[in-house]
Amino acid sequence: MPPLPFVSSEVEKRVRGALRGFSTVLETNGRSVLGITAALTLAACAAPPAEVAAPAPPPPVAAPTVAIAPPPIVARTPVALCGRGSVALTSDGRLLNHFPYPGVSESVLLPAPPPLDDGGACRVHPAMLGDLNRLIAASNADPAVAGKLRSVSCHRGVAFQAQTFCAGILSGRSMGFRDRAWASAPPGYSEHATGYVVDFGTTDRGGCPDADACFAATPVGKWLIANAARYGFEMSFPAGNKQQMKWEPWHWRWVGTSAAVPGATAARATFSQARKAFPARPRPE
């Protein structure tokens, strides 16, 4: 067989191999099967099928950019007080240095145990009753203060607190809002509204009026400063406090000896802002 034109040597080898098996000419009805040979030749000469490239992956789609809006600025509306004007709140929500406190429903409150009950006038949050009973029992076991502990004020609702606060302004005295707030909280901003606070007093005043700094020098005042924290109470406004409140050694709020005490978690949450910004002293560990 002569060389095949226009065909590479590799293809020619394949053609010759294919024709080798057909070297004998077959006759069918007077015709040769050379057509088969030609078909095989063309098949051998055909170029191998081109490889089909895999489709390229689609380009990555960038995630849409979401603009994060800044937190809304909440307008702090000035608070109207005593019909004598209004006062703006500070950035942390305080009014005249006092934090806001939610008022507990009076239906939740229970009378304080004797001798603090004051004829039923002293009502407190039930969560603090266990520690309050233990504090009373411990004071009665100390001969220096036995039977001398009493209450001056306990729970005060918003309406009563408004009377207490505004009385110092509407009584004809020239005391302004800020001066009054140094010694008394505006309505809605008093710890007394929570039911967790007792203003203690003594039956042995020795010439010291109720709710006065001289209470710290009385036997009962000294005893509370030394022992009240053991029963879950802390002095909200100690001497020299940075909250700029009057020193109130008679004013004690209950937070429990630890967060594990039933009800203490809620009490501590109520006073969390004040406890963090202006720690009480003395206070439970």
Structure description:
This protein is an alpha+beta fold. 27% of the residues lie in helices and 11% in strands. The protein contains eight helices and ten strands. The strands form four sheets. Strands 7-8-10-9 form a four-stranded antiparallel sheet. α1 (9-20) packs antiparallel against α2. The radius of gyration is 46 Å and the shape is globular. The model is unreliable at 21-49 and 61-75 (pLDDT under 50).
Fold topology:
Blueprint: H1 9-20, E1 27-28, E2 31-32, H2 34-45, E3 79-80, E4 86-87, E5 110-111, E6 123-124, H3 129-140, E7 149-153, H4 158-170, H5 177-181, E8 197-202, H6 219-227, E9 233-235, E10 251-254, H7 264-270, H8 272-277
Antiparallel strand pairs: 1-2, 3-4, 5-6, 7-8, 8-10, 9-10
Quaternary structure classification? single chain
Structural class: alpha+beta
Coarse shape: globular
Please give the radius of gyration in angstroms.
46 Å
Q: What spatial order of strands do you see in the largest sheet?
A: 7-8-10-9
Beginning-to-end CA distance, first to last residue? 110 Å
Q: Report the total helices.
A: 8
Task: Give a count of the beta strands, DSSP E runs of length 2 or more.
Answer: 10
Tell me, rounded to a whole number, the average pLDDT: 83
**SSE succession:** HEEHEEEEHEHHEHEEHH
Strand content: 5-15%
List keywords for this structure.
285 residues, alpha+beta, 4-stranded antiparallel sheet, two-stranded antiparallel ribbon, 8 helices, globular
Can you describe this structure in just a few lines?
This protein is of the alpha+beta class and 285 residues long. The chain has 8 helices and 10 strands. α1 packs antiparallel against α2.
